Amino acid sequence: MKKSLFLVFALVGLFLASCNREDITANTTSDDLTEVVQLSAARSAATTDTVTKQKCKGNLTVIAAADLPAAVSTYISANYAGSEVQFAGKDASGQIVVGLKLADGTHKGLLFNADGTFNKALEKYPKGAKLTKVEVSALPAAITAYAAKYAGYTVKAAGKNDAGEYFVVIEKTTGTDAEIKASRKVLQFNADGTFKQETTPPSHPDGPKGNRRKH
Predict the structure, then answer these.
(1) 60 part of a folded domain
(2) What's the rounded Cα separation, in Å, for the pair 53 and 57?
(3) pTM, to two decimals
């Protein structure tokens, strides 16, 4: 009798552990996809802002938050305590554009000179970086139809910024977890549902979640 009870409890424990692992995996995947959309919007907002386009020389090369000049990090820590770097890039002349998510959840874009001194705040960055989650089932028909052109892919997550632009993450439906993650693409659409561009998901400038630091 004792052996039977022990076996029942063991099976129940294994079932619960399995369920918990599935829940953790599902939540991690959901969080991961949400971050892909958010970082894509942050990168797009920083690179297409009017200040960036007017003052920067050429395309921005992505740089890690750890590689920001000390003067830049000091300025951010002193003026935006608790903020998180979502995007950082350098132009051909050495100027640096940084996209921040502030402690209160709002967004701020900053331009720094090559020597690390503050230059100017990006004008439209907050509007482009702030995202509202959009359920996949609620996407405009034009966007769903365009995404369907990617054979073997499925829409996994989507968001819309304050300018009305959509950011949609698609990934392959088959393969190993690593292969599926590597297949991800971000499709950007204008407010009217017309296709704008396809990009690869950006990585967080501060690295994996566990290694990130607040300024």
Answers:
(1) yes
(2) 8
(3) 0.80
